[in-house]
Amino acid sequence: MTDTTATTATTAKRSIREYGRPLWQRIVVSRESAIVGLLIIVAVVASVSVHGFSQPITLTFLLMDVAPTLLIALPMTLIMITGEIDLSVGSMVGLSSVTVGALVQAHWPFGAAAIAALLVGVIGGAVNGFLVTVVGLPSLAVTIGTLALFRGIAVGILGTTAVTSFPSEWTALAQATIHGTTLPYIMVPFVILLVIFVVLLHFTPFGRGIYAVGLSKDAAAFSGVHVARTKLILFVLSGFIASFAGIFYTLRFGTARGDNATGLELQVIAAVVLGGVSVFGGRGKIYGVVAAVLLIGSLSSALRLAYITSDVINIITGVLLIISVVGASVLNWAQKARRRPSQPVKAPPVATSTAA
Predict the structure, then answer these.
(1) 19, part of any domain
(2) Please, what's the b/e burial string for 99-123 (b: 16 or more CB within 10 A of its CB; e: otherwise)?
(3) Range of the domain at 138
(4) pTM score, two decimals?
(5) For 227-241, how does the pLDDT look when each residue is reduced to its tens digit (9 = 90+)?
(6) Which of 6, 235, 248, 304, CA to CA, is 20 to 30 A from 353?
(7) 10: pLDDT confidence band, cut at 50, 70 and 90?
(8) Is residue 197 part of a domain?
(9) Exposed, middle or buried, 133 (CB in 10 Å: 0-12/13-18/19+)?
(10) Structural domain total, the chain
(11) Quick one: which of 146, 34, 20, 25 has its CA closest to 85?
């Protein structure tokens, strides 16, 4: 009786500490808000100290550069919250790019070629999801394999050649800005997808199921969450959006090659982890990931304008990512140490009956 009461009192005390803070504190005092603050600091410092960073054209090219990462980071956030990962997204960008290029070269209308590329992305995502959810293989091993598979197919279709004959109206649209602003048109579909994913993750039962799967897939299954279906849907979404990003990538640079977007998956994963998503699943918010993508893009743009080489930029980005992961681990350890009671909680005395 005493042990049970003590455990209940301790659990209640911890619950109050974790969830009793006001909503504004849970939003402001968070890792995601720290990334947003760091993004603002980097932008202000770069605008003052780096020549050309504050010009409107810099914002335009910055958003075009990070647009594929922003797009793919949306489904990647949800996948990593479930405790899985998709390393094949960069190869899917290259495969969809090659699909569009090969079909346009075969005199298909561009719209039909783009739809075919999107279908390729859906099929690729479904293959990943099937192997993870039905066959039961680890997503890390599966997507490493499909990373090589998709890239090999892309290179095999075009070889070392590149397709550059795309309709000028489509390439001009991919490089144009919204009338009267410095925002590229790719931001329109991104904002639409951002709203959809925010609502899906944070305001629907499906999104709560995603967090539940990441915390414990067994507990989520017993709570009524269809774990396999949830993961399958997310992998299909990842393939679809990666193929959409590949179409934009092709139009923006005006070329389809088998090696397009090589290494993009590492940039996406770095941004997602830096944005506050736990590599163990169960934690993360989309606004932190979006801020992390913009932070990495702004930092890279400012360093390039300061004539820093790409190797140094990669080193700085890697150090920033390591610091964020180590910092999160240290913070979690400190919070657990602070919450640990110094003395065991004593149970209240239990009245004993003296009735005959």
Answers:
(1) no
(2) bbbbbbbeeeebeebbebbbebbee
(3) 55-330
(4) 0.85
(5) 999 999 999 999 999
(6) 6
(7) very low
(8) yes
(9) buried
(10) 1
(11) 146
Alpha carbon distance 300, 270 (integer Å): 14
In a domain, 219, yes or no: yes
Is 30 part of a structural domain of the chain? no
Rg of the chain over all Cα atoms, to the nearest angstrom:
24
Select from 287, 316, 269 the least CA-distant residue to 37.
287
Q: Six-digit token pair at 342?
A: 């110094």
> 202 burial class (0-12, 13-18, 19+ CB within 10 angstroms)?
middle
Place of tokens 């301790």: 10
- H helices within 106-166, ranges in order? 110-133, 139-158
Mapping DSSP to helix (H, G, I), strand (E, B) and coil, where does residue 106 land? coil
Residue 108: name the closest of 116, 97, 118, 98 by CA. Answer: 116
CATH number at residue 64: 1.10.3470
Contacts for 355 with CB less than 8 Å, ≥ 6 apart: none
pLDDT tens column, 20-73: 566 666 666 677 888 888 899 989 998 988 888 889 899 999 999 999 999 999
Contact 176/53 with Cβ under 8 angstroms?
no
Q: Is the pLDDT at 342 greater than 60, yes or no?
A: no
Lookup: tokens for 76: 């990647």
- CA dihedral angle for residue 69, residue 71, residue 76, residue 81, rounded to 10 degrees: 110
- CA separation for the pair 174, 165 (Å, rounded): 15
Among candidate residues 126, 83, 125, the one with its CA nearest the CA of residue 218: 83
